[in-house]
Amino acid sequence: MNHKINAEDNFMLQKEFEDQEIWDSVKLCASDKAPGPDGFTMAFYTHCWEVIGKDVIATIKNFHESVYKIISKILTERIKMVMHKLVDPQQLAFIKGRQIMDAILMANECVDARTRSRAPGILCKLDIQKAYDHLNWKYLLETLSKRGFGGRWLRWMKFCISTVKFSVLINGTPTGFFSSQRGLRQGDPLSPFLFIIAMEGINDMLKIAQEKSRLRGFRVSSRVGADLEITHLQYADDTLVLCDANKNQLKILRVIFVLFEAISGLHINWNKSFLYPVNEVHDLPSLARILGGRTGDLPTTYLGMPLGAKSKSIGIWNGVIEKCEKRLVNWKSQYLSLGGRLTLINSVLDSMPTYMMSLFPIPDGVIDKLDALRRNFLWEGNSETKKFHLVKWDTLIESKQAAGMGIRNLKIQNQCLMMKWLWRFASSEQALWKDVIQTKYEMEDPWITKTVTSTYGSSHRRAIRNHWPKLRENCSIKLRNGRKTSFWEDRWIEQGSLKTLFLDIFTLNQQQRATVAEIWSNQGWNLSFRRPLNDWEIQRLVEFYKVLGQFKGTIDAQDSLGWQDHNRDNFSVRRAYKKLNPCNSQRNGWPWKLIWKTKIPYKVSCFTWLLAKQAVLTQENLMKRNIQLSPRCLLCGEEEVETVNHLFLHCRIINIL
What we know:
Elements: H1 7-14, H2 19-28, H3 42-47, H4 49-61, H5 68-80, H6 83-86, H7 100-117, E1 121-126, E2 128-129, H8 131-134, H9 137-146, H10 151-162, E3 165-170, E4 173-179, H11 191-198, H12 200-211, E5 218-221, E6 227-230, E7 232-235, E8 238-244, H13 247-264, E9 267-268, E10 274-278, H14 284-291, E11 294-295, E12 300-302, E13 305-307, H15 318-332, H16 338-349, H17 354-357, H18 364-380, H19 393-396, H20 410-427, H21 432-441, E14 443-445, E15 448-449, H22 459-465, H23 468-473, E16 475-478, H24 498-501, H25 503-508, H26 516-519, E17 520-521, E18 524-525, H27 535-548, E19 560-563, H28 573-580, H29 592-596, H30 602-612, H31 619-624, H32 644-650, H33 652-656
Parallel strand pairs: 10-11
Antiparallel strand pairs: 1-8, 1-10, 2-9, 3-4, 5-6, 7-8, 12-13, 14-15, 16-19, 17-18
């Protein structure tokens, strides 16, 4: 086992519980959960900490079972700090800096590379049967010991996994408690981390088979010959094995799986495990019989996302559209106000496509369908007849500060989610998914890979890469040693990029691809030009050097990206959305706080917004929609047309009321 912790890590894990550490863990626990059998929730503990804190701390330091949830939270926070040392990069779950999308991205890139190579391959998607319930305790503790955990930690872990008790309900009444002999607690924050450490057993065996050339994965290679081999990807118990369509390799896999089942207690459910051919695989059924799994065809799904599908295909979005339609069926059976429908759109419907949009570009046709679903539900609700849509959709998707309703613009949201990949690639130090992208597409500059052409590379990576100019435009460089920063194109001074500010000087310069470190030296700037400068160009050069006068020199540290948003350094999808949405500029004088930031019912806020927009269906607005009505006000009987202002401000009957 290559992944172990050292003595310093063990000291941190096994040291005595500190008072502040206990209090911090109490605050992290869910407020509606009770740590012990007395029923007192964590909200009670936090509210009354000054009174009960000392007693709780003493109980926890004695490792008493009555406050197990707090103890588990403390141990969880500790083990989080060393998980990256214990778990292989192929495991993407529950580790800081790793995401579920990383596994999906790598799986699609590997399939794309294999498809283009035209070599037959096999994808084996495994399903672990009742993963938490079957784990062998002896195997888990032995694995922890081999990973370098000390005796005290092992005793703590044995206490945590073995003290759980169960009771069976008969006619709704518990019939006593009994202990278990294997498995992990459901709902325990410590259980996911222990489980992925246990899953390292199968990872280690696959690695050994790869090192001994008994197993060959999918190779991701560039045009210049660099390559990277991926044999498997894991997200908790979801395991995807990639190998050649070779009987000997599948027999090795069968041996690995049988050994893992025997030592860990975990069992692969072959009725739910599938083998998928990549390219033309001869005699697939006989290969499937070696493992005992079922066969399928690409495209399929992996972790709820398309695998091996064309990213521009509208068909891969059918599941998202169907989920939205199912939600609407349930909501339309209820009598909801405009405010209630707007709340459901903002909190549920807007977020339902987010998972898919995090990796795949959303086609315009899908946006139109989702916009139609949201628009019709907002204005028509549960009505079976068509109703008037009182305000244009382009106005509704503006922010509330900009006189809209704050409904999400899906196209811009998709762009921001794509840009997040580019930000992570440019700012992360080391990650397996980054190695895959870097190996396959090669680096154009220190921040980004080369442009993805139509003849090489996956379509979703091409869509992501196309957003780099927009991200670069909205990022500044935190200059340190200058080795990664383009002197001309990156924004490393406050005013903007030097290429934009001094295009004439840039055109004359011979070092257009140079970094700051290559042009700067302790003696000053080493600029060279294609020809001697004319008299009128000298003045521009003087202005150019005045701007460079802001530079204070380099330091021995890596350059990094910074997001231009009120001095906030880190990129976030929310900040990018606010920056890129042209509708988000605040309109002077629009009283958005008086409408939305009040304590009145939300449905009243929505009606007030319609009044401010002059969109209420008065006689004037109905006549604009070609409905023939008498122009006079029906309340006061005057000849004045019933407008919004007349009905709510000037009508004498309304004033009396």
